[in-house]
Amino acid sequence: MNNCGNRLILSAVGKRACRPDSRCGQDTGRRRRCVAIPVLALGLAVLSACLTAAWPSRATDVEPDRIYRLLPADAAITFSVEEWGGLQTTQGRFQAFDGTIVLDGLDPPSGRVDLMIDAASVSVASTEQDADWREHELRGVDFFDTAEHPQIRFVSRRLERLDSRRLQLHGDLTIRGITRPASFALLLSVETADAGEAPRLSFSAEGVIDRTGYGMTAWQDVLGRDVQLSISGSARPGPMLPPAGLL
Questions:
Q1: Contacts of 128 (CB under 8 A, 6+ apart)
Q2: What is residue 71's three-state secondary structure?
Q3: Which of 18, 48, 66, 156 has the least C-beta neighbours within 10 A?
Q4: Contacts of residue 44, Cβ cutoff 8 Å, sequence gap at least 6
Q5: Contact (Cβ atoms closer than 8 angstroms) between residue 99 and residue 241
Q6: Whole-angstrom Cα distance, residue 140 to residue 146?
Q7: Where are the beta strands (DSSP E) in 84-225?
Q8: Any idea which of 30-34, 128-132, 218-222 has the lowest mean pLDDT?
Q9: CB within 8 Å of 77: residues ≥ 6 apart
């Protein structure tokens, strides 16, 4: 048992709460109340101090082996959007990104996800000439406006457990300096590590956002409003990303 547990036990036994000249000894009920009230107060005070000391106050208080850093070489962030009312689909990806997943092994829903994307790294799957033009438009003021808003950021607020592997990830997504709530279906699994290696966390997440909610209202007669986002890959224990406000 830890020191806090020992102090709590000592606070609840072996304490004389009445003065020698107290009259509470003349009344059994009064004597019990006289002893119980200060002992209970002392026990609660010790318990409160123990919980305050043990509860992490910042993200950096999380044990390092519970912080997983994305492996960009083994991960992908892709998107797709319909064109011409569903006659065809434009697909693309982001080439540069980083992120962390923080898990509490005893309570996965208390974990956190933080993802940072270089908006200018956007690319599309198309013919070479058409791709250059599309990527130029996507980086421009009608879409990601990367000159003014170089970073896309997602910070989770809540993880909702659906079953042993599936969770619903709720958080804030910032694009073009506009922050809106976003939700993703998340799958997680931890792969057993080989001798001398750190465990690997495999993940995949999917969600849909309305691009017009982030100020990307151009080409609505051609491009659909709903954008399907997919993130998949793996991560290993590593340091956390800096807080969003510091970047």
A1: none
A2: strand
A3: 48
A4: none
A5: yes
A6: 7
A7: 88-94, 97-102, 112-118, 122-124, 151-161, 166-175, 178-191, 200-210
A8: 30-34
A9: 93, 94, 97, 117, 229, 230, 231
* Per-residue model confidence (pLDDT) at position 57: 34
Tell me, what's the pLDDT at 36?
A: 41
pLDDT over 70 (residue 219): yes
Give the closest residue to 98 by CA, choosing from 153, 150, 159, 166: 153
How far, in Å, are 62, 94, 228 from residue 58 at the CA level?
A: 8, 30, 33
pTM of the model: 0.69
In the numeric block, which tokens belong to residue 224? 């659909």
| pLDDT tens figures, 86-134 | 888 989 999 999 999 988 765 666 788 999 999 999 999 876 667 788 8
Long-range contacts of 105-112 (CB under 8 A, 24+ apart): 105/66, 108/159, 108/161, 108/167, 108/188, 109/158, 109/159, 109/160, 109/161, 109/167, 110/159, 111/156, 111/159, 112/59, 112/155, 112/156, 112/159
Report CA-CA distances (Å) from 83 to 23, 87, 119, 216: 88, 6, 21, 15
Digit-coded pLDDT (tens) for 39-71: 334 343 433 333 333 333 333 444 544 889 999
Distance of alpha carbon 247 from alpha carbon 241, whole angstroms: 10
